[in-house]
């Protein structure tokens, strides 16, 4: 068994994000999926689809820019660092231009999105080229020009032969002539001294061939052709300087070296066009190259899924991993918090529960001491599309992970076991049946949940015996849904919830919500749109709150039902939550696709909406406490696959399709006593912008805060284990510097404690 892979953690310099109180948010991003690499005099810059990081060569420190500190891209395609202004530019698929200024602040430019009169799918930014204070932006419609100092757009060139938009892949300048490689019209050329260059007729076709990139090197043009070769222009004809045998992805130069990147090669050429190195692999990694550059004799190579690496030009055999520590990828499908680790899996499936193309990403885990570690795919019996994970309730070091193709994994330290159709007996896991191919094995396991006796329940798609349980004694048992769920032969199921009565609530894609309890003579109740008031029979998620209410998220809305009604009823009807909006009454989350629901320690609900971000609503749903979207928070996407709450710290994790962030709220579980009440931060310093949190509370504890002279400034009652104080006197004005007394008493006044907090203005 291989040991878990650990990635070296660099010193990280983070600049706080100003729109939300940065102390409330953390980022858990991957920096492995590199899209571009850029050189500067004394640093290297790299970009993933949703972040930019840079490493200063001499100091060996790392700066990271992501949604936490204000860099919120759509999907980055290319980057450029300006040595004259110390600005870094990041272009996106939709024309969004992000600028990291010299002081670390981030500016967002939407001029291309809002003002260029072409369809939205024609606004991709492909490349940047800086010349004499101007930034030439190659896009899918033409060339836009920006002033590097002021960051203001100057002009746009449409350079098709008839003035139409055309994909410009890269530009360069030689002898005050601008050359643009286009997708459809070869290399187009214009004179920068021509005041009428905005007129397409002032451009000419320099070469009508099929080219993919161009740079100025050795005071001459060097261009990649679609025939897998690179050429120099000697003043009259193009002469081949490199046969890379693959399509060129990037061509770059730092002035003294020429760098050509293909999927499986990184070529570095000197000024005599001799190949200094041809890198084809990185030891211990099956890499796909994306971009490369050279700074000070060091080659920096960005890969498709393994991060940024460096090696020496003189000895390109020893490689150093350069990416910041993070999970394997940004698309995290499910996340689970244990006392010692935060676990993440990546094996997604579509709305129809289709896992293809099958994923092979392994399992990640994070701890404060070790950062992110990876259990590789090879160590997991090559289990594919691992879609969920659950922690054993009595052993935080034991986890189970469901694979939507290979079965069920049991992981305890370095001991890993795979359960499938070969080792779980006749009542165990089953493969779906493929007509005409009986030997094909596809075991789609999902919905892991433990009951109070530590029995592990799962669902098994596309089989009649769809509900499985691994008993605490190691025995498997199955329960048949034939005759219960009309579409059981093609049944697919979301993550189940198990209530205090041991009733299993299983979301299904076509049959609504299936409720089952083996302790009531294998009793089943099916709730659907016909008999149970569900807004849609596609149930996406369920959650049981602290008052035994089941919250049901469907493809088209929300419903609730009391779990206790299952015991006494044979049919169940769900209820909509009606809220008042002005003079109008309406359903909460009417016709919205609900992706996930999580209940915090104060019985509030976090609800993820497809393309709508996340809501925090009060325990009864009548009040919206927060709504976070990509526009008003550090969320990198409005599609949140999974919400996980750390009941001890109150940290709420949002796993999205573009990275994971967390919100440091007050979602902690109530304590049994007041012996561990804790106040933080303490002292409160002038630069702190957040709220003071008082944790370790019992539920419904009374909290009074007074100044040192006994004047009351704040009073509240806890709901859950933590409350927060905005350091204002009853919400009106900030209190003065000084020591403040915090008096805490339990609801029945049998337990009490006193704490102090110092505030410095």
TrEMBL record:
It holds the Pfam family Reg_prop. The keyword Signal applies. Residues 679-759 form the Secretion system C-terminal sorting domain. InterPro entries: PorZ_N, Quino_amine_DH_bsu, Reg_prop, Secre_tail, WD40/YVTN_repeat-like_dom_sf. Residues 44-204 form the PorZ N-terminal beta-propeller domain. It comes from the Bacteria. Keywords: Signal. The keyword Electron transport does not apply. This is T9SS type A sorting domain-containing protein. It comes from Flavobacterium lacisediminis.
């Amino acid at each position: 068994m291989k040991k878990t892979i650990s990635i070296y953690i660099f010193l990280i310099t983070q600049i706080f994000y100003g729109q939300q109180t940065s102390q409330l948010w953390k980022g858990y991003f991957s920096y492995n999926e590199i899209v571009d690499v850029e050189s500067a005099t004394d640093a290297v810059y790299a970009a993933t689809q949703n972040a930019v990081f840079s490493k200063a060569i001499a100091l060996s420190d790392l700066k990271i820019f992501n949604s936490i500190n204000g860099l919120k891209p759509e999907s980055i395609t290319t980057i450029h660092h300006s040595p004259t202004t110390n600005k870094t530019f990041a272009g996106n698929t939709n024309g969004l231009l992000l600028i990291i200024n010299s002081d670390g602040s981030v500016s967002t430019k939407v001029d291309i999105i809002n003002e260029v009169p072409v369809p939205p799918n024609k606004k991709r930014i492909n490349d940047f080229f800086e010349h004499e204070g101007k930034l030439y932006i190659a896009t899918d419609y033409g060339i836009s020009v920006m002033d590097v100092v002021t960051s203001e757009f100057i002009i746009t060139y449409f350079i098709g032969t008839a003035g139409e938009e055309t994909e410009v892949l890269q530009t360069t300048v030689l002898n005050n002539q601008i050359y643009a490689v286009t997708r459809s019209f070869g290399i187009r050329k214009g004179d920068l001294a021509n005041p009428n260059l905005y007129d397409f007729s002032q451009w000419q076709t320099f070469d009508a061939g099929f080219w993919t990139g161009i740079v100025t090197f050795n005071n001459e043009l060097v261009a990649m052709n679609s025939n897998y070769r690179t050429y120099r222009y000697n003043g009259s004809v193009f002469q081949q300087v490199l046969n890379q045998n693959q399509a060129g992805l990037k061509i770059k130069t730092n002035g003294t070296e020429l760098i050509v990147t293909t999927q499986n090669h990184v070529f570095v050429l000197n000024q005599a066009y001799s190949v200094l190195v041809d890198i084809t692999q990185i030891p211990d990694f099956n890499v796909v190259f994306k971009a490369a550059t050279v700074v000070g004799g060091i080659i920096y190579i960005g890969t498709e899924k393994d991060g940024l690496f460096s090696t020496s030009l003189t000895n390109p055999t020893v490689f150093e991993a350069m990416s910041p520590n993070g999970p394997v990828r940004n698309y995290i499908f499910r996340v689970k918090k244990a006392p010692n680790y935060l676990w993440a899996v990546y094996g997604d499936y579509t709305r129809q529960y289709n896992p293809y193309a099958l994923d092979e990403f392994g399992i990640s885990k994070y701890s404060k001491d070790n950062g992110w570690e990876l259990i590789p795919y090879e160590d997991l019996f090559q289990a594919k599309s691992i879609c969920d994970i659950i922690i054993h309730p009595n052993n935080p070091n034991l986890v189970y992970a469901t694979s939507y193709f290979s079965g069920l994994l049991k992981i305890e330290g370095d001991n890993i076991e795979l359960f499938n159709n070969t080792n779980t007996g006749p009542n165990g896991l089953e493969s779906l049946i493929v007509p005409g191919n009986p030997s094909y094995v596809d075991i789609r396991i999902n919905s892991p949940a433990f009951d109070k006796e530590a029995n592990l329940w799962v669902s098994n798609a596309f089989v009649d015996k769809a509900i499985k349980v691994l008993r605490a004694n190691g025995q498997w048992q199955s329960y048949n849904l034939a005759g219960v769920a009309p579409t059981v032969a093609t049944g697919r199921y979301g993550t189940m919830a198990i209530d205090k009565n041991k009733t299993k609530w299983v979301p299904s894609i076509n049959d609504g919500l299936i409720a089952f309890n083996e302790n009531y003579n294998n009793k089943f109740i099916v709730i659907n749109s016909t008999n149970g008031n569900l807004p849609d029979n596609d149930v996406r998620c369920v959650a049981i709150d602290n008052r035994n209410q089941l919250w049901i998220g469907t493809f088209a809305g929300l419903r609730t039902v009391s779990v206790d009604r299952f015991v006494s009823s044979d049919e169940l009807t769900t209820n909509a939550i009606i809220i008042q909006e002005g003079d109008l009454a309406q359903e909460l989350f009417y016709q919205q696709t609900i992706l996930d629901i999580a209940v915090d320690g104060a019985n509030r609900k976090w609800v993820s909406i497809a393309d709508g971000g996340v809501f925090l609503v009060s325990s009864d749903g009548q009040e919206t406490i927060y709504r976070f979207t990509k526009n008003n928070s550090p969320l990198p996407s409005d599609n949140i696959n999974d919400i996980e709450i750390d009941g001890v710290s109150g940290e709420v994790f949002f796993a999205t399709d573009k990275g994971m962030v967390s919100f440091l709220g007050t979602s902690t579980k109530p304590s049994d006593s007041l012996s561990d009440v804790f106040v933080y931060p303490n002292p409160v310093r002038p630069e702190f912008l957040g709220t003071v949190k008082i944790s370790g509370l019992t539920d419904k504890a009374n909290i009074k805060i007074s100044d040192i002279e006994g004047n009351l400034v704040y009073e509240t009652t806890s709901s859950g284990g933590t409350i927060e104080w905005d350091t204002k006197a009853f919400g009106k004005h900030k209190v003065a510097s000084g020591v403040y007394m915090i008096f805490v008493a339990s609801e029945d006044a049998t337990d009490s404690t006193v704490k102090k907090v110092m505030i410095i203005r």
